[in-house]
From TrEMBL:
InterPro entries: Dup_hybrid_motif (IPR011055), HPr-like (IPR000032), HPr-like_sf (IPR035895), PEP-util_enz_mobile_dom (IPR008279), PEP-utilizing_PTS_enzyme (IPR050499), PEP_util_C (IPR000121), PEP_util_CS (IPR023151), Phosphohistidine_dom_sf (IPR036637)
Entry's Gene Ontology molecular function annotations: kinase activity; metal ion binding; phosphoenolpyruvate-protein phosphotransferase activity
Enzyme Commission number(s): 2.7.3.9
Main location per the UniProt record: cytoplasm
Name the UniProt record assigns to this protein: phosphoenolpyruvate--protein phosphotransferase
Family: Belongs to the PEP-utilizing enzyme family.
PANTHER family to which the protein is assigned, alphabetical: PHOSPHOENOLPYRUVATE-PROTEIN PHOSPHOTRANSFERASE
Taxonomic lineage: Bacteria, Pseudomonadati, Pseudomonadota, Alphaproteobacteria, Rhodospirillales
One of the GO BP terms on file: phosphoenolpyruvate-dependent sugar phosphotransferase system
Keywords from the named record: Cytoplasm, Kinase, Magnesium, Metal-binding, Phosphotransferase system, Sugar transport, Transferase, Transport
Required cofactor names: Mg(2+)
């Protein structure tokens, strides 16, 4: 073992690494060290050694010191994006250097104005070293002693080149679209664990223990990265070969071709983590949990109407309060190990019960098995902390670091880690670990930051009574699924929702956007009565649901269902759906890791058509992008994906994906039962391009009969030129969710604008009228399939504006039909006309409430 001192590589204010405004560095995930806010523009070597690598963006450099410590010197924060601008390298890879040698010069003005911060880090990135004696919290001169590194050996100061003295290295290019995300990382870990010695993966200026899924994911690798596999000890050559070969073959992920142009999703290498979104300034701290029995009213935004009484199941990512001090390692370590075993057994049991989700549970087990997680927690326990505190801290740090990476898939893994954090804490407190929404007890009202569409996809019927989200928007895709399940939902409750304790009795009121915590007994009783009365009314409405829907004056309005999964279809028929007006095909394939084949798609569409017993099925082509990323479809990282590659834009960019889907639809029997609808149309030429594909595929399948092809009106421009789009479309269907977000310039997933995101805004209504008028030029029908079609206040207005078909969430169809049977077209037209001349959605809602007080 040796100790070396590192000299300050820069002059400036020296600070602890923990204060650096970058979570990965601050949490020590890159390595141990310190930082300097520089007052000079030259980075100098802190030790004698050899330059291991100068980053291609010239903002960072790693020097291997005598003794083997690898010292990363990283200039500024978020400087990789400057792509070398403002930096001049004065050394090359492999060059020997002495303490004080100039490594990189930089333009302080340019870098200072373009980067998040000039604070520069010096950290030891490889295993087997510790640091102490940091000089921090004062000005430091370049060359002054900055810190001491212990560990390693002279032998470790091997030459930069490959295998020598029991160490082997091999470089390989990563050719998988999303880098080392959880699954490939787990495959790599499995191979590395077979080797008794250390195995490290180096990428750019970082290194990670190859036996840790979390550490590998934390590398933030992307397609095209050069990875170096390094192993030590007997058999190092073999393991390096094996792992490099595995990486080269994709570690179980499909390989992505890399031409001169980087493929979608692979564009910019991401070396520095992107800071996680800041909580809104206006939002208050969550505060301590509400006391048992404390009566509280929280206000949010209506997402799915309806009321429910139930018991809270918390699904927040934020920390539970746990005692910091433990009873000593002899007690706490076995407690933690037992809790981990309990959760592992629970995951195995869940995988057995729900084989369709087995891959998710397996990924959770891999994470639980992660040596870095356990080692981190044991290190805290060794200092006297409780198992709960130690586990929470370690899991939280790692989850935060993953969440800060640019790739949304990594953020999902962070959610997995938080889930495991909760489960282990539950096991430590003696409660049964909750393995997710799939395992809810009946009557649960789930409170969460935000629920993912994929989580809701696994909820068994009847268990989930209500949902309250601290964040989220009223038309997000998770809300759409909640609506399909008929689960009253309130969003944008704010962080106060985090204070509601597990098991608290609550009333969720989706009609008013309220959550009543520990309400008085009379309110619980009144809500139960109202829920029961509503169920009776619903049953009555269902009895007539099969009849056609005619208004009081005889006007025929068609009511269809929006479907997202095969199992929704029979319920929709019972509710009285006359067909499916929108099949969100992307929901069928949300939880998959690879694209569905044409045959798989065909089978699903056919099952839905069969379940609808001959009623028409409008199949929307894949609408991915925005808040619906698909793991198997790498799209470029976009500044603003909602305004980027979405809907038809993706289909035209990935024509094979679209063609496979078109073929699958064309194969459904009986011929003529399906129609094709294309999302996010902005111009007739897009629909024309899809029509050409449809015609070509039809010819290839030797199908003579045409198929109806419709355009969704979601982009304001499409509503404005509906007369032009109607020339190439057989029908139009208005997606009010997107139309509203684009017209009002309010993100449909953003809780801060959730209360104003209302499809009844007169601006949206005017566009709907414009679309109806334009469509009439070519005699095209206009449907509404966005959330407004399921809103009882919107239905009379839409009908008054000339819409003749509504496609609603199945749970409301019987009620909607009953409501429309009581309306007269003349009244609807009058109120709609008045609504167009108002200033706000609130005013419109008041008009509707005056005209039809019982809605
Ligand atoms: C809409 O935008 O209104 C719509 C129906 O499509 P989605 O909600 O799936 O984006
Ligand atoms: Mg849409």
């Amino acid at each position: 073992m040796t100790a070396i001192t590192l000299a300050a590589p820069l002059a400036g204010w020296a600070m602890p690494l923990e204060e650096v405004p970058d979570p990965a560095f601050a949490q020590g995930l890159v390595g141990a060290g310190m930082a300097i806010d520089p007052t000079v523009n030259e980075l100098r070597s802190p030790c004698d050694g050899v330059v291991l690598s100068i980053h291609r963006a010239r903002h960072a450099c790693t020097v291997r010191a005598t003794g083997g410590a690898e010292v990363l010197l990283h200039l500024g924060i978020d400087t990789v994006g400057l792509n070398g601008e403002g930096f001049t390298a004065h050394v090359r890879d492999g060059q020997p250097v002495k303490t004080g040698d100039l490594l990189i010069g930089f333009d302080m003005d340019l870098v200072g104005s373009r980067a998040q911060s000039l604070v520069s880090m010096m950290v030891v990135v490889n295993d087997g070293f510790t640091i102490d004696g940091r000089t921090v919290n004062r000005e430091i001169a370049a060359g002054e002693t900055a810190m001491t590194v212990h560990g390693g050996s002279e032998a470790a100061a091997a030459p930069v080149a490959a295998a020598s003295g029991g160490t082997a290295e091999r470089s390989v290019i990563l050719r998988i679209a999303h880098g080392l995300h959880a699954r490939p990382a787990a495959a790599l870990v499995a191979a590395a664990k077979a080797h008794p010695g250390a195995v490290t993966i180096l990428c750019r200026d970082r290194s990670a223990n190859a036996k840790s899924v979390v550490a590998l994911m934390g590398l933030g690798t992307t397609l095209g990265d050069r990875l170096t596999v390094r192993a030590g000890g007997a058999g190092a050559e073999g393991v390096v070969e094996t792992i490099a070969g595995l990486i080269d073959s994709g570690l179980g992920d499909p390989l992505t071709e890399m031409g001169a142009e980087p493929p979608a999703g692979a564009a910019a290498p991401v070396a520095a983590p992107v800071p996680a979104p800041m909580p809104p300034a206006a939002e208050e701290e969550a505060g301590p949990p509400f006391a048992e029995g404390e009566e509280v009213l929280l206000k949010g935004t209506i997402a799915v109407p309806g009321q429910a009484v139930g018991t809270v199941v918390r699904r927040f990512s934020s920390r539970m309060r746990v005692a910091e001090e433990g009873e000593g390692p002899a007690v706490e370590e076995p407690r933690l190990r037992r809790a981990l075993e309990t959760v592992t057994a629970g995951l195995a049991e869940s995988a057995r019960r729900m084989p369709e989700h087995a891959a998710i549970f397996q990924a959770h087990r891999e994470l639980l098995d992660d040596p870095e997680l356990l080692d981190g927690a044991l290190a805290d326990i060794a200092t006297g902390k409780s198992a709960d505190w130690a586990w929470q801290r370690t899991a939280q740090l790692q989850a935060d670091a993953l969440a800060a990476l640019a790739d949304p898939r990594m953020a999902e893994r962070a959610a997995d880690l938080r889930d495991l954090e909760r489960q282990v804490l539950a096991a430590l407190s003696g409660k049964a670990p909750n393995v997710g929404l799939a395992d809810l007890p009946a009557g649960s009202i789930v409170l969460a930051d935000e629920i993912l569409p994929s989580e809701l996809a696994g909820v068994p019927a009847g268990r989930l009574a209500g949902i309250g989200m601290a964040h989220g928007g009223p038309t997000s895709h998770a809300v759409i699924l909640a609506a399909a399940l008929g689960v009253p939902t309130v969003v944008a409750l704010g962080r106060q929702a985090e204070r509601v304790p597990d098991g608290a009795p609550v009333v969720i009121d989706g009609n008013r956007g309220e959550l009543h915590v520990s309400p008085p007994e009379d309110m619980l009783a009144a809500t139960r009565t109202a829920v029961a009365a509503r169920a009776v009314r619903r049953e009555e409405n269902r009895r007539l649901a099969g009849e056609d829907c005619r208004m009081a004056d005889g006007t025929r309005i068609e009511i269809f269902a929006n479907l997202g999964r095969v199992s929704d279809a029979p319920g929709a028929v019972i509710e009285g759906a006359e067909g499916c007006g929108l099949l969100r095909t992307e929901f069928l394939f949300l939880e998959r890791q690879s694209a569905p084949s044409e045959d798989e798609q065909y089978r699903q569409y056919q099952q839905i058509a069969d379940a609808l017993e001959g009623r028409p099925v409008v199949i929307r082509t894949l609408d991915v992008g925005g808040d619906k990323p698909l793991p198997y479809l790498p799209l470029p990282k976009e500044e603003n994906p909602v305004l980027g590659l979405r809907g038809v834009r993706v289909g035209l960019r990935e024509p094979e994906l679209l063609r496979a889907q078109i073929r699958a639809v064309l194969r459904v029997k009986p011929v003529g039962v399906c129609r094709i609808m294309v999302p996010m149309i902005a111009s007739p030429s897009e629909l024309q391009a899809v029509r050409t594909m449809v015609d070509e595929e039809r010819a290839a399948l030797r199908r003579a009969e045409p198929i109806e092809l419709g355009a969704m009106i979601e982009v304001p421009a499409a509503a404005l030129i509906a007369d032009r789009i109607g020339a190439v479309a057989d029908f139009l269907s208005i997606g009010t969710n997107d139309l509203t977000q684009y017209v009002l310039a309010m993100d449909r997933g953003n809780p801060y604008v959730a209360a104003q995101l209302d499809a009844l805004h007169p601006g949206v209504l005017r566009l709907i009228r414009q679309a109806v008028t334009g469509a009439a030029v070519h005699g095209r029908t206009v449907a509404v399939c966005g959330g407004a079609a399921s809103d009882p206040m919107a239905a009379p207005l839409l009908i008054g504006l000339g819409v003749t078909e509504l496609s609603a969430t199945p749970a409301v169809i019987a009620d909607l039909k009953a409501q429309i049977r009581g309306l007269r077209l003349e009244d609807c037209r009058r109120v709609a006309e008045a609504a167009l001349a108002t200033d706000s959605a609130d005013e419109v809602r008041r008009l509707v409430a005056e005209a039809w007080p019982v809605i």
